[in-house]
Specification:
206 residues, alpha+beta, 5-stranded antiparallel beta sheet, 11 strands
């Protein structure tokens, strides 16, 4: 068993004991061939650690009307299909800042609104207290073509893999509302080290 899979199993054990509904939301892993088929149109090769992650589990189910399951610190673990959809959506905004963008109501509590802007790109978010759509105008050069979102907090906050290296998944945390030009700070130099850190925190919180 690799260090990555061992760390993931330790996190799963903690979730089963402390957040069983979150553990239950984890979907069965994918075969290597299934991953290959799903990622074939991406403009980069995913690091081998990301393959191992999705062979372990294929993210968490996001069910309409239910509380979004958290894998750690408020972040949900996107299924590979959802991660690819999120990537395509974000890179589409990056490619075309002058667009009419319709937020998919199934992704945000039946929220659907046509937003017509011509300066920067648009990321809508729901103000749950007032049930209103708020729009953040962001610089269209933020999202990079080799950033792949794996963990999702909200439409502005992600944990991403920088896919410039095929062996190790360099992990960065990005907050789109405050991002400026340039690369985000790397918080872990591999997915394995990130999961080991989370697993150690889980072990000490028992």
């Amino acid at each position: 068993m690799s260090l990555l899979t061992d760390a993931l199993d330790r996190i799963l054990n903690w979730l089963q004991q402390n957040k069983p509904s979150y553990a239950f939301s984890l979907q069965p892993g994918l075969a290597y061939e299934e991953i290959e088929e799903k990622v074939k149109n991406l403009p980069f090769t995913l690091p081998r650690e990301v393959y191992e992650l999705y062979q372990w589990r294929d993210g968490m189910r996001i069910c309409k009307g239910e509380k979004i399951a958290q894998f750690f610190h408020g972040y949900t673990f996107l299924s590979l299909e959802d991660a690819i959809d999120e990537y395509n959506q974000l890179i589409g905004l990056w490619d075309d800042p002058e667009l009419d963008y319709e937020w998919d109501k199934d992704l945000n509590e039946e929220l659907a609104e046509m937003v017509d802007m011509t300066n920067g790109f648009i990321i809508p978010e729901l103000n749950k207290e007032e049930n209103e759509l708020q729009v953040e105008i962001l610089n269209a050069d933020i999202w990079k073509s080799d950033w792949f979102p794996i963990f999702y907090h909200d439409p502005q906050s992600y944990i991403i893999v920088a896919c410039k290296h095929q062996d190790f998944a360099f992990i960065s945390q990005i907050y789109l509302q405050t991002m400026e030009h340039g690369e985000p700070k790397t918080i872990f130099n591999s997915l394995t080290n990130m999961m080991l850190d989370i697993a150690e925190r889980c072990d000490t919180s028992k």
